[in-house]
Structures
1.
Amino acid sequence: MRFDKYELYEHSVQDPEPVMANLARTFRRLRGREARTLREDFCGTGANLEAWALRHADNRATGIDLDPEPLAWGTRRRFGPADPATARVKLVEGNVLHQKGGRFDAIVALNFSWMVFKQRRELMAYFARVRAALGKSGVFWLDLYGGPETETKSEEATPEGPYTYYWDQKHWDAFTGETRCAIHFKVGGKKRRNVFTYDWRLWTLAETLDVLRDSGFEILEVQDEDSSTDTTVWRPVKRLVNQRWFIANVFAARR
């Protein structure tokens, strides 16, 4: 197996079709209509954008990312002239804090990417940009992770057939909430360390909900993963207690 960090990342971390299906299903339930226009912040290689565009002929998607490298990889891989999603997907190289205009049914910030904002004022500035870009009855979806195991130094290896994926929690500071993590891959007997690195603040669910409300959002729903099934199923919850590790989806709207 050849080493391609973006291909390995997508295979290990992302699952675009069910993720976009959850967005469509949740939006329909919360709003009583179909979502057609999507903006993904920190979109990376655009896998979610392609999946969204391919769900329906009327679906449109815009992706924003500061890093030109994954955008270029995604353009070569899935948005060529002959690809069916190309005409309905727009990739923007830029800072999510500088985006203006647009009216989207849904805006998403997934894979914890928004945690790059470590200060409350920075996070509120980002949420203000999102709020301004949401259309009437639009929905903002972000995900986060938490639980006591996220506050410990650890490295978890996951065999993925011809390679091994590693999630490495390198550091967590209780004083600031800052965390540093990395993804490693072992391919062909060679372990490549720090292929992707992350310098975040590990915002708690309670903190995130407070900042959203203070930024003019209404919390529509929080989802937790139902681990009792073999496939990923998300269920609305009112409480999250006694979990060593969890991932939560937060859906919010302009108040």
2.
Amino acid sequence: MMHLEDWHVHNEPKIPHDPRHNGLRYLYNYPLPQALQMLTDPQWTRAIFVRDPKERFLSAYLDKAAKKNGRYLDRHCCLGEEDKDDSCGKRASQSLLGFIKVVQTECCCDPHWKPQSQRIDEELWNYVNFVGYFHDLAGDTQKMLQRVGQKAWEEFGASGWGQFQNESIFVESSTAKHRTSARTKMMQYFNDSRTEDLVEAFYAGDYQRFQFDRYRLAISDT
């Protein structure tokens, strides 16, 4: 939308995440009066896309803890620990229960698993006027772009995506298969009620603010 030629390049860590290299403009790049208008004027769309807390937490565990014996956590959460054989990264990598315990006690604010309801100050949530959900990413993205303007949807979302550039944005041809696979993996890892209770408690704010369904995955072990 900003007409950057490298919009489709995924070159970690610089593009697309690093503000110093990706060429995108952020709210803090604008003069304060203009930024305040963007934050408060009802004509602006202030959107956030959120993911089911358990799915997001499991994704963080698989990518940041289970992978490479928790080296990510050793670098970002276990600073000062001398026992490398029993570091918080090693403990977190062993199981989803071990991961939630480490997150609760040593590294709760990492952006990969920090509650989405804590991303901005409480008083600013009243200005967020569009919430999209990952479980319907294609549909909610269409709604958001159409809210911005039908031209935005037609120019940037309606076509030009997919392997053959003939699909709408975020459309998945194998949605049903993908959902089945994801649910199976969730049930594989959320296999005890204690772990599930701890994760639900950690994300209580997300469940309340975004009204996620609290479906249970683990068979009760009581």
3.
Amino acid sequence: MDQEQKKVLVIDDSKETRELIAELIGGDEFEVLLAPGGREGIMLAKMKKPDLILLDMEMPKMNGIGTCRVLKKNPMLQNIPVIFLTANKNPDDVKMAIAAGGQDYIVKPFNPEELLARIRKLLTKTGFNPNSVIRG
């Protein structure tokens, strides 16, 4: 392995979605960390310091918006890019996700190549372009 693996934390209450994403992006380029909910994701983020977080919007106990807000209030975690990956395609949800600190928004079902491209783009760029949000 020529370069260090980037860590991607997937926070989603769907085991199938977590496993699918791990299969799609796991390998030499990315180390994939999995969390079944917001609280577990926040704890894992504190322990492992991921380079990027993929975050579901609708989860029991703590939803994606609440999870993102907690992450962005923590000085150790606030600069980790967050991509919301959700079935919600309501424009108000996109606004709430970006307002909570998300850098991107992808609607499920997603194109695997596009997901990888968005992850790579956020891991290599500085700053956020609100016009780059994927809308379903």
4.
Amino acid sequence: MQDIRILTTGAGAPGANGIFKSFRIGAKNDGRKIEIIASDMDENVYGFQLTDKGYKIPRGESPDFVDKLLEICKKESPNLLISWVTPELLSIAKNRSRFEELGVNVVLSYSSSIEISENKGKIYEMFKEFGYVPDYRIVNNLEELKSAISSLGYPGKTVCFKPIYGHGGRGFRIIKSDINRMDLLFKEKPNSVFTSLEEIKKIFENRDIPKLIVMEYLEGKEYTVDMLLNKNEPVITIPRERVLIKMGISNVAKLEKNQDIIEASEAIAKIIGFNYNINMQFLYSPGQKPKLIEIQPRLAGTVVASVGAGANLPYLSLKMAMGEEIPEVNVNWNTVMKRFWEEIYVTEDKKWIFR
């Protein structure tokens, strides 16, 4: 079996360690060698110590970003290129042919699918008629924001908003009428997403604001769905409940064979048209229906939960990109993943110890 040489970005992402381990476990089980060349915009990231080589690269929005990746490809000759950093995906996908000219297969969906999924307003508009999304409004200014909040039932109901374009929870806020600033100060960590309408008015007053999507706040169970697709056809679909979330990251997750979510995810994915790994997020409404919240056309940071249950989606995407047959996968449903902190120690002479 052919050895794999892979270039990745996002070496400092919280989930990078789990993805690197998944690659190596899969390669070991297949009896092949894998070399991981990592890159990140921060030269101090931990991922450089867990991979074979590391390169500092510009931010994904930089005009030099793609050229730097191409430079690394010319030097290192990887078989595959994969990213799990949202601001980088579209630039890489749009330049797919430039990487392919160097013999590098890009393990991402095509740019048309990525463009759709990155526009949350577009996604909500596409799937409103199917009943897959929460009640929402799209607004462009403070007056429209206030009107949308009111029409969604505030102050009797809690509402939330986020930018049409955004990632990592940036700009997401939950507006509650009974928010207690004293409780926020002493009982919530500084990264709390709760706020009041009065505070939002002060922030937005006399300022241009990005286009926002305002929606009902759903307090039911939350799920992430890890998917592997082959040219628009779902191969593996695995929902997992986000049991315990800290700073937007799942610390405890439970795999659940939830047929409603599986069917909704596969229907949505086929309409947009994806390839390789993607993930979706759902929340349950008061009527106990799963509602689509986000689509990320990339590996999820907690995809390692599926790996631990027997479905090594990161490695299977590499096999797919190499043109290899995907074996039958038996998911160990109801597996629970629990996360904990771990450290790397780098000595002055750049040697490192990982315990």
